[in-house]
Structures are given as structure tokens and as C-alpha cells.
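Schema walk-through. Below, the input block comes first and the output block second. Nothing else is stored per chain. Lengths vary across the set, and this one has 358 residues.
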Amino acid sequence: MGAIAVALGLAPGAAAREYIPPLGHVFVGLTAGTTIVPWERMVGKHPPVFETFMTWNTPTAWLRPRGSPSRTRLALHISTAPGYAKPGVISPRGIARGHSDRFLVALNRNLAHSRKIVYVRIMGEPNGYWNAYAPFNSDGSFRGQQNSSHFYIEAWRRTVIILRGGPVWWINRHLRRLGLPRLNPQAVGAANLPHPKVTFLWVPQDAGSPDIPANSPGNFWPGSAYVDWVGTDFYSSSPNFGQLSSFYNRFTGKPFVLSEWGIDGGDNPGFVHALFAWARAHPRVRMMNYYQGFTAAAPEDLAHDPASRAALRDELRSRRYLGYAPEYAHSQRSGSASTAAVAAPLTAPSPGAPPSPP
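--- output ---
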């Protein structure tokens, strides 16, 4: 096991797991907001996954409780800034050099304590200029080495190694092999970190914004041993299915996630049907999380788009799309409907739907 663990980038006793839905099924989840209730009522199906947002170096104790009031799996997007176009609390270089180890150790322990399956999306859309950790401004100017794709990759790897857990001696050996600083003993205070049920989603834009060679998604690839899912975000305002297919075909061997998709720019039922048809034709697609925004005024809120809402309701009638993850399947069999708001506090607002590339 030790040799295999080293080859895969895993601590002894740890195992990379995708936590994919059962064979032949897809999770159509929900992203953003604080409740699943309006969306569930509009589309007629409970979302099996709920994605929320938090900021680096903020409290993590809210993740400790076991169970889920909404009977959903948690997807957790971790950003370095509390929202779109805001300054980061730490740079990718700072993460790579160990300046946020206390945060990562606390996150590891609280995720493990929850005993829940959690999909962790680390610094999504790194090649989008609207994110604090992106290396380029919209005009293509470089923000500095601390935001380079090199340090993004090192920050990603350090985050994954720590969050997967394991013996601290092994974590330090792995970090040393990557040329990264060892864990600060004061940040750990124990010989071992627990193994939470985490799986890691790598979600860049399928083309950079700005769209320059140095900002293409491949420059941000952390390596197969550190990635469990591959995916991107996709909106009706920029429905480039050819580009989406090229991205899908380039990064193979992993389950595929649309971590955010949504209707923006006007009611568009054709886009809904086209996206679901694309997903059916690409069997690695195992999760599609609709971005609903954080307020009722958000353009992606389906309350504004009756035809798109009806199209999505029609698509979700298929048994292919599960209402509940396996551990909550009894909720569906009993016929109970969700009425509870998601209780997890949000430490940061959503970065919002990405703007169209200039």
C-alpha cells in the first residue's frame, strides 16, 4: 500500500474517491444561495448536491455538524476572496508556502468530524480575471508571480495533500518531494490528520479570460494524482458547445462536472435541452449544478425564466437524474419533500456568474 500511496500522491490509508452517483445516473444539483426550496418547487426535483462558497482563512467549525437538514451532499467552493472582483486574503504563493496551514488543518478535522461526503472545489475558474487568484487582468497584463499558474498548482497540491490527511511524517515527506515547506508542527499538534470523505473538483474556464496562451486551462493542471473530478462552468450567454467538447476530450480519465451552469441573458429553453443532450452524449458527465444566484434578483434565478424552468422540469422527469444521493435515498422512497432551508452559514457571497470573455 505504501508504494501505491506514494505513486498516487496519497497518504498511507487514504484513498482518492470520486463519490460518483450510481451507474447510469447523474446528480443535478444546485449552486449558490442559502436554500434549495424555491428551486426544488420550480423544477419538481430535490437537488442531491448543494454547492456553497467560503473564503480562505475563515472559520470552519460550521462544517462540523453531522447530517444534513436539506438531505444534500455538500459541494464547497473555497476562494481566496469574499466575492467577485475583491482582493484576496491570501495569494496562491502564500498557500503554497504554508501560510494557511492552520486553516487547512482545521478544515481537514472539521470535514472529518462531519463524516459527510464533501466535494471540494479549490479556487474555481483560476483563468478568469474576475477572481483574486487569477494571474492575468482582463487586458492580459500579469498580476505578479504570487498569482502565477505555477503557484496555483503548488497551492492546489498542498491543499489536497493536507485535506486528504494521514500521518504527518508522510505528509511532510510528500511536501518535501514537491519542494514545498513542511507542515508547521504548531499548526498540527498531533501525529496524524484524519481522513475526511473528500473529493476534489478541478474547474477552470474551458478557455481563458483573457484568452491568451498563458491563460489556457492546461497551464493550471495540478496533475492526475491531485484531481478527482474535471469540469468547467457553462452559461447560456456563451453557449460554445464545440469549445466545451474540446475541453471534455482533452482532460480524460476523470468524472466530469458542470460545477456551475445557468440561464443568463434571457429565457432560453433551447439551451436547457441542448445542454442535457450534450451531457447524455458525453457519459463522463456525472454532476451538473445549476447556479441560482444569491438573491431573487439574480438573473440566473429560474423564477425569471418560465420557459427554461419548464424545460428543466421536463428534463428532470427522467429517472437518470437522482433526487437524492444514496445515503439520503430513504427520503425519496418515503415521499417526503424538503422544506428546510440550508442551515450552513455562508462566509462569503458568490463570485457570481462569470462575465462573457471580452
